[in-house]
Write a structure and sequence with these properties.
single chain, alpha/beta, seven-stranded mixed sheet, two-stranded antiparallel sheet, 10 helices, 9 strands, 30% helix, 15% strand, globular
Amino acid sequence: MIRHPLLTVHGFAGIGWSETGLPNEVGLELDAAACLTRINAGHSTIRCDVTAYPTAPFKGYRVNKIDSPPCPGFGKSGKKLGLQDLPRVHQAIEDLSRGKDTRAAIGAVCLDWRSILTAEPMRWHYDLQPERIAMEQVPSVLPVWEQYAGILQRWGYSAATGVLDAADYGLGQTRKRAVLIASRIDDVQLPAPTHGGLGQPPHVAMANVIGWGYTQRPAPTVTGGGTATGGAEPFGNGTRQAMKRHAGTPAWRDRDGVHHLRPTIAESAALQGFRPGLAFQGGAGQQHLIVGNAVPPPLAAVVLEAAGIIRQTSRLAVAA
C-alpha cells in the first residue's frame, strides 16, 4: 500500500502563511497578482475560485489545512450587513459539518457576499479530515471560529481559539487577529506572547522597523485596501490624523520633497514582517492589497508552530 505524503492545502492563499516554510504546500488563490507573487516566491499555486474547486484531488492524502477567508463584515460598525448574515453563516457551517452543502442557497440570501466565504473551510474539513488546521481573520470572526472549534472537538480534535495581537509576537504594528488551531494528533494551545510582558522584550516600535522618527510604539495595523477584500488602505487618507495621535507627535517626513504619512510598499511589508526583497506583483494598489491582506509571516509562524504544522526550526526571525 502506497502511503501518500503529507500535503499542506492552503485556501485563500495570499502570501503570508506561505512565507513560513510550509511543508509540501499547495496554495489555492484567485487573484492574478497574488498568484504571480506566490509563484515568483517559489510557492506551489493553483489559480482558482476556492469555493468551486473540488476536494477530490486531495482525497487519499494526509493533509494539513490552512485558511484566511476574505474579511467579512461581522463587526458592529458600518452598515452591519455581515453581522445580520452571521446566523446564516452559522447554519451553513453546521450543515457542511454534517455533509449537507447549503452554501449556494444560504449565500444567495446573505446581505454581504463575503459572509458565506467563512463557511468554506468546513467543506474541506468534512471531506478531508485534516491532521492539523490553522485559520485566522479579523477579531469579529471569533464566534465563527468558536463554532468550528466545537465541531472539530465533536469529531475528536483538540482545538483552541482566541484573539492574538501581532505586536505581542515582535511585530512593529498593532494587529489583532482571531485565530483557530486544531489537531487530531496532539493537544494544542494558543502561543504565549513573546513581547511586552514581564521579563520579555518590549513591544517593537514602528521607528525601529522602518526608520520613521518620533514613533515609540507599534504602528496602527497595516490593512489591505478599501475594496471587496478588506479595510482602508495602509495608513491612507482616513488614518493620517489617527497616525499622528498614535505616534504622540507628528510623524510627517520628507521623501522626494513630498510630506506624507503613508508608508511605501516596502515599508508596509517590513511592518508585516516579510523578508527583505520579496517582490510583490501588480500595480501599486494591488501590491498594497497583497501586503495588507496577508497574515504577518512571523505571527503566522508562531500560530503554525502551535498547531504543529511547522516546527520551531522553520520559524521566521522577527525583527526586534
